[in-house]
Amino acid sequence: MMPGGLSETKPATPEVQHIVNQVKPQFESKENKIYDTFEAIVYKTQVVAGINYFIKVQVCNDNYVHLKVFVSLPHENQGPSLVGFQTGKTRDDPLTYF
After folding, report:
1. Which residues contact 14 (CB under 8 A, 6 or more apart)?
2. Residues 14-46 pLDDT 10s
């Protein structure tokens, strides 16, 4: 993968679910809503000065959101940051740059 380009879509891993769990409170605060289900399904990455994760998350039976999460370089000692999201997605909506 080239720096700046998006990777292929990959199945979510435990590491990606951990990132999703860490930004869930940020998302819930912005949406002013609590989600019982918050399961990472698939993701793409973009290498920048750190990594942008584009993650499809299931929030209920047939409702999905796309999250854009920035993870800084390890030496910066900062947790993941929710930098954007798209609501009203379906399981079949492709993950794209936003």
Report:
1. none
2. 999 999 999 999 999 999 999 999 999 999 999
41: nearest Cα among 22, 72, 63, 25: 63
- Pairwise pLDDT comparison (32 vs 76), residue with the higher score: 32
Name residue 64's beta-bridge partners.
58, 89
Residues 6+ apart with CB under 8 A from 89: 56, 63, 64, 65, 66
Q: How many CA atoms lie within 13 A of 28 on its CB side?
A: 13
How many alpha carbons fall within 13 Å on the CB side of residue 79? 10
